[in-house]
Specification:
The complex is a heterodimer of chains A (161) and B (200). Chain A has helices spanning 2-7, 61-66, 89-94, 118-127, 136-160, and strands spanning 20-25, 31-34, 39-42, 56-60, 83-88, 98-101, 110-114, 129-132. With 161 residues, chain A is of the alpha+beta class. Chain A has one domain (2-135). Chain B is α+β, with helices and mostly antiparallel strands and 200 residues long. Chain B folds into two domains: 1-59, no CATH class; 61-200, no CATH class. In chain B, strands 1-2-3-4-5 form a five-stranded antiparallel beta sheet. Chain B is globular. Chain B starts with 7 loop residues before the first helix and ends in a 20-residue tail after the last helix. The chains are: A alpha+beta (161), B alpha+beta (200).
């Protein structure tokens, strides 16, 4: 990837508006339990800017497709991933957002969605379609670990008062 | 302008009462032995140790939701840069402090509440969220201390949103309601509130 990032020409424009942008949920911290649906779901925080340059990190299907790679090729490389969703370039553009190729040393297929506001991240969440189902077990496990830490803290706290 | 670096972990650990500025009870060096590590934020306020002791005497035991809130905040404060992929930032101390402050401001003193989720974002912001059967609420706090709120009342099929002071006013109205369960009207402030329904 480092070699590709250094020597391969960066795409200045995405052409296929029907192809998808993949947003991988890299942390269980961005899952919340929805009592109405009775399931763990993705928080809208996962659709906000995911980096200091105010872009939402995504992988670009058009570039993966060009290299003959499946849209899920990179998913196993993310150790804490708990699911993935997609939206098309057309859907992103319709919201007044812009997708751009932003290769990084660890991922040449990486891109960013720019122009995200609080309101638009809600709309982006609504537009998202599930590619890899939310790992309900991993989410529950993460929550169980949290509850165990709270129990430990509760057993310590009164003694300090 | 927020200029003082405050060990927010400490404010959590001692269960700062509602309407008590956390800075007023922040001691030197972080928390007492409460089981939570503190971030080295470089605060030295040795003269306030005695007032801290006084405060501790009158504080009630931790409510369950306070312990959960404290754990959520502690955990988010441990996330390192890159936790959400390349370029993602660690969660802003300021956003965490404001989240703690705003939650305690409206829920402090009550027990038997549902603790909110605290959801980090890769730009360093944090969201306070409830997703209950009858409604949902999300207050976003960015690293610059800007607020944005979105909510949905499932009972009346309305959505609302707001920014800045309006967001905080909506949060004060709706957060107790979500935290207590929608049926507990006793927790809903009486002040009139403008809600712009954007979809029905």
């Amino acid at each position: 990837m480092k070699f590709m990032c250094r020597w391969r020409r960066r795409r200045s424009q995405l052409f296929r508006s029907d192809l998808r942008l993949v947003r991988t949920l890299q942390a269980p911290e961005q899952l919340v339990w929805n009592k109405a649906t009775g399931a763990w779901e993705i928080s809208s925080a996962a659709f906000g800017p995911s980096s200091k340059d105010r872009c939402l990190s995504i992988d670009i299907e058009e570039l993966l497709d060009y290299d003959g790679l499946n849209v899920l090729t990179l998913y196993p490389t993310m150790p804490r991933a708990v699911g993935a969703v997609t939206f098309t370039v057309a859907e992103v553009t319709a919201l007044g957002l812009q997708a751009e190729h932003q290769p990084v040393p660890t991922n040449w297929y990486h891109g960013g969605v720019m122009g995200i506001t609080e309101n638009k991240k809600k709309k982006l969440k609504l537009a998202a379609k599930e590619l890899v189902a939310i790992d309900q077990e991993a989410a529950q496990r993460h929550d169980d670990e949290k509850q165990a830490r709270i129990q430990r803290a509760a057993s310590v706290a009164p003694a300090s008062f | 302008m927020f200029t003082t670096t405050i060990p927010f972990d400490f404010a959590l650990d001692v269960g700062v009462a509602a309407n008590t500025p956390a800075a007023a009870v922040a001691p030197a060096g972080g928390s007492p032995a409460m089981g939570y590590p503190t971030r080295p934020l470089g605060v030295s306020r040795p003269n306030e140790a005695s007032s801290l002791s006084e405060s501790l005497k009158v504080l009630p035991p931790h409510a369950a939701w306070e312990l959960e809130l404290a754990e959520n905040l502690r955990h988010l404060s441990t996330l390192q840069a890159g936790w959400d992929g390349a370029g993602s930032r660690e969660v802003s101390n300021r956003a965490l402090f404001l989240a703690d402050l705003r939650i305690r401001e409206v829920l402090g003193g009550f027990d038997n509440l549902v603790a909110p989720y605290l959801v980090p974002a890769g730009d360093g912001s944090v969201q306070i969220e409830w997703h209950e059967s009858d409604g949902e609420l999300e207050l976003s706090i960015d690293p610059d201390g800007k607020f944005y709120i979105w909510g949905r009342d499932h009972i009346h099929a309305t959505e609302f949103e707001g920014a800045g002071e309006e967001a905080l006013a909506l949060f004060r109205r709706w957060a107790p309601r979500l935290a207590a369960g929608f049926g507990h009207e006793v927790y809903v402030p009486m002040a009139a509130q403008t809600i712009s329904a954007i979809s029905v």
